[in-house]
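Help! Submission page says 'invalid entity' but I think these are all valid:
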Amino acid sequence: MTSRMIFSQEMENLNQEVVQMASLAREAVEKAVRCIVNKDPSLKGEVERLDKEIYHMEQIIERRCLDLIALHTPVAGDLRTVSTCLKIITDLNRIGRYASDIVEVYDVVASANGFRKPVNIPHMASLVVAMVTDATDSFVRRDDKAARELFERDDEVDCLYDLNFRAILTYMLEDSRKITVGTHIILIARYLERIADHACNIGERVVYMVTGERMNPKDRKKSASRSCANAPYTIDRDDHNRLERSDHDLAEK
Amino acid sequence: MSESIFVKDLNVWFDKNHALKDVNITIPKNEITAIIGPSGCGKSTFIRCINRMNDLVTKCKVTGEVKVDGQDIYDKDVDVVEVRKNIGMVFQKPNPFPKSIFENIAYAPRIHGKDEDKSLRGTKVSKYSKKELSDLVERSLRRAALWGEVKDRMEKSAYELSGGQQQRLCIARALAVDPQVILFDEPCSALDPIATAKIEDLLVDLKKDYTVVIVTHNMQQAARVADKTAFFYLGELIEFSETKKIFESPGEKLTEQYITGRMG
């Protein structure tokens, strides 16, 4: 086997491993969300196992990247691919970690009785899972256009997080016994929002890998203006009244 | 950064072989420019045009414009010897003269004398005194990072030096006539990694005072030392850009194929 063939084989192995790691991370998020939304404790252990496996894969892939750099000195497109893999495995590892964090609060959230169901969490979760899936697909297909679209979808997740935060804050103001569970639900929303950010990071690296263009953080923020005005969902009238009351109470205090 | 070498519509033929085709490039002053490309792509032909070395090849025809510091080196009034003095060259294999270390450096200044101006049309010269010559030899050897290794054996034959030392001696010899540009034609291909590292350090140091052009087959060497890199293929200049851009995100597919080893 020529050195060129060995290098090509190593690059192919690297690609396969990153795809496998991304698939594990996506599975972990999916299962963590199902565990919370469907109140299914059997998935808790499964998510923790996936988190450990994702961490293990990060170690393997990092070593392969360093070997490739040391032994084959990749340049141009190959260099961008190796550096992208080296960066996105950190994002994938963080995604796995957040999935594990979500199931960690399962016991508190599951035991909550009489707490109003946080309606936006399942919607937020489905958006986030789709973003992780599409970020992975953009890497597999080397599709920078699909990667750029992730930034716009991140706006929606950010808005949902804001709405969740305000709604849950209102519940907690109404009844201080709900603070523990409310805080944990806010944490879940926060973890989902961070997973979406990591999916965007992957997208940013895919753009660099395919085009060589380093995205300006301002360009990324341009779409993520954090305006909820065009969010494709609404909160119901009760929620709206509660939010207004809570704002009024906060102002008075 | 101001221009040092300006090349416009350069074409070179060796008999019927069209070796360089419409090359246009501006090489900046006080920078290292690497020339890369597969064997036979015209790299060496190109740098040999910069100091008119191709004039020595029979059936070689050169057309176009090559200006060094604004002076057209192919102008009919230009003295070729002055051109080669102003544009030094170091070759792949060290080629010291069969003389002492001192004489290797002192030979050219003694022949040329002291330059009173930098014109390529023949210059007013005066002779070096013994002291001046001795100082010039020491200065050149220091500049080539060789003085410490040879100061106690200046009268010994240059052939007693190692390959890396001989190459640095050749660089010192080129520096002794105070050139504006130094051309290196694969200067490290016959050296071990330690001698190569010394030459590379020297190249980076030399660019403070000279314009350096280096032909290399070693991609990593170009990436390590060059500020700009030009990629030649089949006699054409395919891409000329910042070295970082060439090795990270080349603009041309051919460049990418060559540097990633996917060509052919």
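Support: the input was valid. A stray whitespace character was the problem, and the output above is from the cleaned input. The two ends of chain B are 37 Å apart (CA to CA).
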